[in-house]
Amino acid sequence: MAESIPTPADVVGVAVMPPPRRSTAAARLRAALTGLADRMAPPPVAILEGLFGVLDHRVLVALCDAGIPDLLVAPIRPADLAQRAAVDPQHLERLLRAAAVKGWVRFDRRGRVRPTRVTAFLRRDHPGGWRAWVDFAGGAEVTSAVAMLSATTAATDPFAAANGAPFFEWMARHPGRWATFDDAMAAGARMHALALLVALDWPADSAICDIGGGTGHLLLTLLQHIPGATGTVFDLPDVVARAVHHERITAQAGDMFSAVPAGFDTYLLVNVIHDWGDDDAATILANTAAAATAGARILVVDADHPRRPRDRIATGADVLMAALTGGGRERDHRALAALATSAGLRLVASTRLASGDWAHELRASRPG
Ligand SMILES: C[S@@+](CC[C@H](N)C(=O)[O-])C[C@H]1O[C@@H](n2cnc3c(N)ncnc32)[C@H](O)[C@@H]1O
After folding, report:
1. Disulfide-capable partner of 337 in 42, 186, 301, 347 (CB 3.0 to 4.6 Å)?
2. Which CATH code, of 1.10.1660.10, 3.40.50.850, 1.10.10.10, 3.40.50.80, is assigned to 39-126?
3. Candidate of 236, 298, 302, 330 to mutate for ligand 1, largest count of ligand atoms within 8 Å of Cβ
4. Cβ burial, residue 329 (10 Å; 0-12/13-18/19+)
């Protein structure tokens, strides 16, 4: 069955993907307001709220595991919802009350629980696919890696320490969890595609290679909006085996540390470079540079990493990289430029995306 074209409403909950300047202004306003609320908190409240974040994570996972977002489609008494979900009513009500404080559900004056916009995005059949992020981030392999984070083991790999193998090796031994990870990545990939379409120029006949492109959902979304373009999704064999089917998309399996497909005019590395330490990241970029046609652009998309941290998703992504990888991190423009130079490339432009990430455009140092 052909996949439907994801709309901004499906993917991020707005009718139109905003231009980067507007989304940046909105993100700054939100950061300022939440920062103000945080600064108003008495220190003990700030400390307890910080520690209780782990409970927020668990409540979200527990409600999704019980299928609550899928069952909560209209106002309902918590006890009736508990009956439908076949769970303990008192226990469920406690979780729902915690969820209501976060805006994941809401209580009305009659004591009924109601769905919110967030509830809808958490449903299994929601076209944005964000529920997979809960399934992935709630996994024991993730929470055990996060629990290994420590200020004194910064150079090691918490995921490997907790699970016995580095992230992608472990995933290869746990295909079900790997598929869940792929699905989580696909949700972000749809968002990145829509953000890239608004922010950058895409020639009608683009030939695009998405390196570490997962199951190809970024490419699928891009190509559905650029009818003359073609693309290749390049990833590890097990992932490519799960890739989307589309007449203008080729799926190619391989190892980006050995070589990447040659001859494309645009290469994408979306949330790939941040998985790796500098030496590995430089190898991926050098292999991409070697494969790229003369004049090709290489787009590295990763989270924001400003001098003054302000964005919780960006700092969260960076700490998640610290937990899940052995050296991966978000990089600022200077670090990205240095990495490009070490791979024989130069950073020619950085464009803020509506997703809050940056698209860094790299080109060959000496155009061929
Ligand atoms: C964080 S995910 C990003 C996926 C996708 N670009 C996105 O943003 O949704 C990193 C991807 O790199 C792939 N990957 C890891 N090691 C690889 C390798 N040696 N060669 C090719 N792909 C690899 C993983 O399978 C995964 O799909």
Report:
1. 347
2. 1.10.10.10
3. 236
4. buried
